[in-house]
Amino acid sequence: MQFHFDESSPLYQQIASQLEEMIFTGGFDEGDKVPSTTQLSQQLHINPATVLKGMNQLVDKGLIEKRRGLGMFVMKGAQQKIMEQRKEDFYNDYVKTLLLEAHKLGITKQHLQDLIERGEQDGKINS
Amino acid sequence: MEKLTVNKLTKKYGQKVILDNLSFQLAPAKIYGLLGRNGAGKSTLLNLITNRVLSTSGEIKIGSHNINDDDHELGKMYLMSEVDMYTKRTTIKRMMELADEAYEHFDFKNAEQMLTDFKLDQNEIFTNLSTGQRTAAKLVVALNVNADYILLDEPVLGLDANHRELFYKELIKAFQNKPRTFVLSTHLIEEIQQLVEHVIIINDHQIIEDADVESLLKKAYAISGPAKDVDTYTDGLNVLYTETMGSIKTTYVFDGLDEQRVIPDRVKIDHYDLQHLFIYLTNGDEQHD
């Protein structure tokens, strides 16, 4: 398990998003126990309050849950939830921007579909 | 546990002002950073809080009790000071016993484990140790003493990187096993940025910042791009420092960024860290471009 922090956003958010990534990629499977606040803060030398704040974000999103006396566990359907969220983000971050830029450049819908085809072909050649 | 309140605290030596009218609070079970440049008065402040030095004016209270000469209140605080106060021939074992006699319930078991980790023998004589070993021995006492407020003056002095890591881990362990308030007075800001929840910055004998790390960093923006665009964008903001490389200017701001401000195309906005914020806030007259 490898964390990497920078100054881009508050530390608790970075903890939350990196744990989320680990859940999404299967580093922690559904039903798995995730490291405790105690473990994480001792290992990463991060203030326990900060780690807890990050973990609570995942609790609020319904990705992990606390089981009394046992610790924190990845909830059933967590990966699916992250996937749905990311698809929504994909639409907002990429598709909307793509259409906006295409419109500015006068690229028609048909032309756009051709470009997607072309991109797929290129992808095949490269892979 | 009750709050520790410092109210209008001033310390003068003759006409010389060391600390000028300081007011702040330390909350129970929280890790603080006390930052200031050399000679800012950090050690004096820690000595005042623990009644080792008397104030010129002002008061220090735990809950509603003044700590002045009140042994019961003073027993809630422990200061690991920069100055070594142990007599010749004092062994590490004796240091731990002294802490147990004064504060009771010293955690000998954990202390012995820490000594092993720091590669120290409890029969060694304190004054025979190297600077780093002395710091380690003092830390073993400080992290296992039974007090609500543990003040650590220069807790990593002379410690190598491995032992600093060990200390940070032990500190969190001590905090989690028994939540207490720790105050770290150190110059290694980069290393404690993630460790402390709140910082108090002293500059020119006064407190210039008393805030959570997260809220401070939220206002620390580095804005870079073509000088003209950067200047337009940062107009009216609290600018701490600027640097120029060729035609590219970087302006370090400590302020909230108004959502209404239009970000010019070629202007980039990043955050910078606590150490740089500290440097820019306390550089004073030394700033030059």
UniProtKB/TrEMBL annotation, chain A:
Keywords (A to Z) from UniProt: DNA-binding, Transcription, Transcription regulation
Organism domain of life: Bacteria
Protein name according to UniProt: GntR family transcriptional regulator
Organism of derivation: Limosilactobacillus frumenti DSM 13145
Domain HTH gntR-type: 9-77
MF-aspect GO terms: DNA binding; DNA-binding transcription factor activity
InterPro entries xrefs: Tscrpt_reg_HTH_GntR, WH-like_DNA-bd_sf, WH_DNA-bd_sf
TrEMBL record, chain B:
UniProt keyword annotation of Transport present: yes
Pfam families documented for this protein: ABC_tran
SUPFAM superfamilies: P-loop containing nucleoside triphosphate hydrolases
Family annotation (InterPro entries): AAA+_ATPase, ABC_transporter-like_ATP-bd, ABC_Transporter_VariousFunc, P-loop_NTPase
Keywords: ATP-binding, Nucleotide-binding, Transport
Annotated ABC transporter domain residues: 4-229
UniProt cross-references to Gene3D superfamilies, sorted A to Z: P-loop containing nucleotide triphosphate hydrolases
CDD domains: ABC_DR_subfamily_A
Highest taxon of source: Bacteria
A GO molecular-function annotation: ATP binding
Name used for this protein in its record: ABC superfamily ATP binding cassette transporter ABC protein
Source organism per UniProt: Limosilactobacillus frumenti DSM 13145
